[in-house]
Amino acid sequence: MGISLRPHQLEAIRDIDSQITSGSRAVCCVLPTGAGKSLTLAYYAKQARERHEICVVFAHRDVLISQLSEALCKMGVPHSFICSDKARRDITNNNRNLFGDSFYDEFSPVVVSSTPTFNARISAGKIPLEFLVRVKWWLQDETHHLTQGTSWHNCIQPMINAQGIGFTATPIRGDKKGLGLHADGVMTSMSVTTNMFTLIKKSMLTPYKIYSTGTFDPSSVNVTTGGDYNQRKLVIGVNKREIIGDAVSHYMHLAPMKPAITFCVNIEHAIAVAKQFNDAGIASIAISSKSDLNVRQQAMEDFRSGRIINLVNVDLLGEGYDCPAVTVVIMLRPTQSYSLFKQQFGRMLRPSENKSYGILLDHVGNTKYFMERFGLLAPHDDPEWTLDRLETRKKRDDDDESNKLVETMTCPECQCFGVVKPVGYVDDGSHALVFVNGVCPDCGHVETPEENERRIRELKIKEGELIELSFDVIDSLIQQRNENLRPVSEFSHTVRGSSFEHAAKNQFANRQHALNILRHWIQEWCLQHGRDTGLSPSLVQLDFERQFKVNIFKAQASSGTQMNEITARIQGDIQQRRIA
Length: 580
What we know:
Blueprint: H1 7-21, E1 26-30, H2 37-50, E2 54-59, H3 65-74, E3 80-82, H4 85-99, E4 110-114, H5 115-123, H6 129-134, E5 135-141, H7 151-156, E6 163-168, E7 189-192, H8 196-201, E8 208-212, H9 231-238, H10 241-254, E9 260-263, H11 267-279, E10 284-288, H12 293-305, E11 310-314, E12 328-331, H13 338-346, E13 358-362, H14 366-374, E14 408-410, E15 416-420, E16 434-435, H15 449-463, H16 471-484, H17 488-495, H18 501-533, H19 537-548, H20 552-555, H21 560-579
Parallel strand pairs: 1-6, 1-7, 2-4, 2-5, 3-4, 5-6, 8-13, 9-11, 9-12, 10-11, 12-13, 15-16
Antiparallel strand pairs: 8-15, 14-15
Helix pairs in contact: 2-3, 3-4, 15-19, 17-18, 18-19, 18-21
């Protein structure tokens, strides 16, 4: 039993070997979702066994041990386990069914365990220290979980003579901690040899379409210390009949009866979603990490055979699950975790027979959120990887073109999601869909002027980090402005006979004078900017706010001194434009 590695996996191995030769004690290998991280990991386990060196292979959760064991079987590597007897029996029986051999060898130097189990046994003194100091290699899947002081770190810390290789598609964490030894982790170097787009171009992954069929308002959901939404509060916002109904109807319209994985918030949510799909005649089952291993494996086998069409899951099939038949991913769980999003996104990209492209039905706006958060040109792109801590994104500079948001668009007719002529973007057929001149590449809908205005307005508000004022607030500001435009004689009646009458009349007259001058220069700036850009008055007003950091109505309701300062800034900007 054995398997041939692909060129990109061999390239990664060469780079890792080079870094180890150069003295790196812990290499973080970044390979995109679908690139075959588990087989690359299994290669190093095989090398260790051939050298009779003890190697511990870690899955970050108990439910993923069987998947790493399968990778070792494919590579022909006999291995042992540190897990419960029941889990070992279930895994080895499954291996016999899949490969005709359990590949279990209790004397093998290659040991497979989950982080929680291994950590618990170390704490209980059930793993001898003499074994730990003899370990030569630790290999860890989903290594973005490994930071100092965690249970993952507790597992490898006693292995004082071991070198390590960690594998991940996304070396980034929601809590912004860095994986480097110099930051919050243990990694001493990073290997990045390919990316998702390269694999799509080489047909190692499939092209894709995205349909953005909804958004999520996170205002009522707090973020935990781990950097993602509070699940108990999150489920209240998404476990609604109309949202679940939309998921079923959009699936039936856009990808009827194609093999799908649906990602939900919790078990209750998953059960409700599976019921709706089943009621619509789409064979579905809800599974989670709490499901018995036999139940999970039977569900996956039924899915592979076509008896189940939709695997509705909770925190189970994002990391480590490899089933090329998956054509559709349905996102019903909003997340702030880029790793979680990218893992889920990648489930639909494995090539398989009769699959020309994967389909993402994003009901919660995750794709748009992460493109804007990290300034990505396309959904398959990634931020620049680093072992450093993730710094909070700096406030956008309107003059910095590299910091502009990429324009995205969702077709109002078919909900196809894509990019709008981004800078440096080349559409070669493998890239994300591109909207050119407002024309949907999927259904041909032409963006109306009203739709264009609405889309550009939303982009400008986000780019300028502006808060759009409600109609009530705007009306109030206009009333304040109009109060300042009353004749002085009319204002005089309101203060006549008071001790401060004279001072108040002078102050009112000065503010009115400042307002009249400000209104003149606002009009001058808006007319010139409108001529230069061709934008509507509404969009010109947004650009005014981005340029001068004050809403156009608030400016006219400010104090006389503030209005004079704004006028001076407007005059200076107009002068610079004329010189340019």
